[in-house]
């Protein structure tokens, strides 16, 4: 049963990582491209890490602290790095695609 759960979590995590990577490649400007790695890829990595936790808990019969620490680090750093990238793009007055919503509401610091 553990192998089925691990397989499903790995497939789901891999699917989210693939969707995030395709989204990053297909979006027209920097502001839209940033959503791929910060949203979908983070969720995909969480699926892979949960699969690793389930697998090693079933094999070794003890929870793995490494995967939990990686998950916490990933969930803390991804939004912060995304925020810093957006602030830098706004500071350097990067041009946005016409379809990007919310750009007209950005105020200069």
TrEMBL record:
<keyword id="KW-0472">Membrane</keyword>
<keyword id="KW-1133">Transmembrane helix</keyword>
<dbReference type="GO" id="GO:0015385">
    <property type="term" value="F:sodium:proton antiporter activity"/>
</dbReference>
<feature type="transmembrane region" description="Helical">
    <location>
        <begin position="36"/>
        <end position="56"/>
    </location>
</feature>
<protein>
    <submittedName>
        <fullName>Cation:proton antiporter</fullName>
    </submittedName>
</protein>
<dbReference type="InterPro" id="IPR005133">
    <property type="entry name" value="PhaG_MnhG_YufB"/>
</dbReference>
<keyword id="KW-0812">Transmembrane</keyword>
<feature type="transmembrane region" description="Helical">
    <location>
        <begin position="68"/>
        <end position="86"/>
    </location>
</feature>
<dbReference type="Pfam" id="PF03334">
    <property type="entry name" value="PhaG_MnhG_YufB"/>
</dbReference>
<feature type="transmembrane region" description="Helical">
    <location>
        <begin position="6"/>
        <end position="24"/>
    </location>
</feature>
């Amino acid at each position: 049963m553990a192998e089925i759960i691990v397989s499903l979590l790995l497939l789901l995590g891999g699917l989210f990582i693939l969707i995030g990577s395709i989204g990053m490649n297909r979006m027209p400007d920097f502001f839209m491209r940033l959503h791929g790695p910060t949203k979908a890829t983070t969720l995909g990595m969480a699926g892979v890490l949960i699969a690793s936790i389930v697998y090693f808990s079933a094999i070794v019969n003890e929870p793995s602290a490494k995967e939990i620490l990686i998950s916490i680090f990933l969930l803390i750093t991804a939004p912060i790095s995304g925020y810093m990238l957006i602030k830098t793009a706004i500071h350097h007055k990067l041009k946005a695609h016409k379809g990007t919503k919310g750009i007209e509401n950005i105020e200069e610091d």
